[in-house]
Amino acid sequence: MSSTTARTPVYFVSHGGPNIMYDTSHPAYTRLTTLGREITSTIKPKAILVLSAHWEGTATTLSINTAPSTPLIYDFGGFPSHYYRAKYPHTGSPQLAQSALRLLADAGIPAKPATRGLDHGVWVPFSILFNPETNPVSVPIVQLSLFDSDSGDAHYTLGEALAPLRDEGVLIIVSGQAVHNLPDFFASRGSLKPRDYALTFDEALKEAVEAEPAERKGKMGELLKRSDARKAHPTFEHLLPVFVGAGAAGKDKGVRLWTMCEGSVSWGMFRFGDLPEENGGEVDEKGAAKDCTKSIILSYAIDLVDLTYYICLELLMLTVKFEKLFESKRIMHYRAAEYMGRAEKLNSYIQTPATGAPTKNELRIISRSPPSSRIPLVLPQITSTKRFEDYIVQAENICGANNPKIFTKAEEAYKNLLSALNMLNLNISDGDNPLIPAIVRLCKASEAEGIVRLCNNFEIPILSFSNMVDGDYRSAIPRVTGSIVLDCGRYMNKALGVNEPGGYVVAEPGATYVGIDQYLVNKKLDQKLELNRSEHMVVLALGNIAESNMFTLYCGRGIILLNGDLLKMGMIQLPGIRPTVDGVPQVEQPETKNNRASSS
After folding, report:
1. 516 HSE (CA, 13 A, CB side)
2. 543, CA 20 to 30 Å: which among 193, 305, 370, 379?
3. Which residue range forms the structural domain that includes residue 456?
């Protein structure tokens, strides 16, 4: 018989969306369940280190969760309200986090501790892998970020640095998606017919993972240069986790355990390294003939289910019942496709990739001699220093002389303002490049409306933040330079009351949709009323959809007040992203022209 080894394998799982948790007939659900039982019954890890596509540090510095206990992050939108009340019991491990930090330091990889909840790239697949009721895993779970970088080599090297943890009984799981093109998925209205690029890239990924360990790094690097790479992955964050897994594998071989292509998405899952029973040892011929394990049988069964499942879905798509079932989802897909169209228009303003091939614009670094406390290191788009000074004067008239905080140094960071501004994990610089000219802390609703109107008049993009009981808008650092940040989390984040007959909620400008939903639950009104939510539940009621790790949208929204005023949030102030009222673009309306003339 084979002897058990302490070295754990490494897994890459395709995590899908949160709906997979409830789609128990989906083949991916079955496969994840099988993998989970393989891990708990055969590997029995002492702890789990996980990396997800939905947490990126900076281009050069990683972040790792060092907290012993953290909440879940509901970083998705457009789903039923109970999705945002899902729970996954888990604990962290400051000790494991420190061990990982030491290994990274030894490898010369910058990393810093952080306090952050588990994103859906972790807790969604873990809810299936390690179902708390049927297959619990009672070990600590620590999440480490990826780099905010498309470098396959950097992520492969990261995996190599983490490899020693495998000899300590730590299981490394990397979570992403083998093929992940959501814009095409939305544009195709959810069609499950596999795209050609999904099939070809899925197979190329298999060949790279299963290459001889000495050749694997080169083969993996070639994936990013393929002509179908940007089709399979318009952005690479869902692919890069497998690079980490391949690096952590060392001399162990990789194998694809299972895959299935659905439209522009693939569910490929991989394991690097052998299971304990498969290492060494001798097996007699009789034993070998009978050595058909439960997991292998399940693999054959899943392959049969895949074919049946695919055929059934194709037939169902022809029926009226299926059309009605997916009507609401199609609406969401249309809206997301519209947002992606807006994102394409913003490419010239975006510093890092939004929807495909990278674009890079030079920042307008201001030369100040002598330095002025009234002029930031970076200006908003299409804004002169004189115009920005005029903006600050009017902002101070609205919020007070000391409220608009102007950033004049590249090294200044939000971490120095955490206690005052109640924000997490955000910097005002991307490397040496400053991104934000100023931040305004809102204290009253009138200030919120006044500052937004002012930004509209000056055509300055807005990025909003808030905190509430179980959700806040935690964005990546802004990709559009010169965004004015509105902090609504200190004083303006509460739901104030519900009018049941009218079916509406009264809330402060910084209230998040997640927070409002929780307010209904706390008041026991969730069975009577359901929030007519936006596409992204974690955004503010007065806010923007400026950043999203799930859909990579760069856009904004318009809010019409009761008096008829239109407030433009996010980045819809930028050229080419104009809202309309009664068919007349906002930029052409008399009031807009008058406001611009008075503020210029």
Report:
1. 26
2. 379
3. 333-599
339 and 248 together in one domain:
no
Q: Indicate the residue type of 519.
A: Y
CA dihedral 53, 59, 60, 65 (to 10 degrees): -40
Domain count for the chain, please give it.
Answer: 2
| pLDDT beyond 90 at 312 | no
**Residue 334 exposure: Cα atoms within 13 Å on the Cβ side:** 6
* 131 CB neighbour count, 10 Å cutoff: 17
Could you tell me whether strands 141-146 and 47-56 are parallel, antiparallel, or unpaired per DSSP bridges?
A: parallel
Residue 173 predicted with pLDDT over 50: yes
Model pTM score: 0.57
Q: What is the mean pLDDT of the chain?
A: 74
- Using CA atoms, how far apart are residues 136 and 1, in angstroms rounded to an integer? 28
Task: Say if residue 196's pLDDT is above 90.
Answer: yes
- Dihedral sign (CA 373, 379, 384, 387): negative
Q: Tell me: do 316 and 408 sit in the same domain.
A: no
Q: Is residue 287 part of a domain?
A: no
User: Are residue 244 and residue 389 in the same domain, yes or no?
Assistant: no
Torsion-angle region of 396 (φ positive above 0: left; ψ -120 to 50: alpha; else: beta): alpha
How would you label 61-86 residue by residue, b for 16+ Cβ within 10 Å and e otherwise? bbbbbbbeebebbbbbbbbebebbeb
Structure tokens at 320: 């009226």
Residues 228, 339 share a domain: no
Give the whole-angstrom CA distance, residue 544 versus residue 555.
7
Assess if residue 283 is contained within a domain.
no
Residue 509's domain is classified under what CATH number? 3.30.43.10
Angle 270-56-249 from CA coordinates, rounded to 5°: 30
- Separation of alpha carbons 432 and 306, rounded Å: 49
- For residues 556 and 595, state if they share a domain: yes
Per-residue confidence (pLDDT) for residue 433, from 0 to 100: 55
Number of neighbouring beta carbons within 10 Å of residue 243: 29
Average pLDDT over residues 531-540: 48
Same domain, 459 and 514: yes
Contact 179, 266 (CB under 8 A): yes
State how beta strands 261-262 and 141-146 pair: unpaired
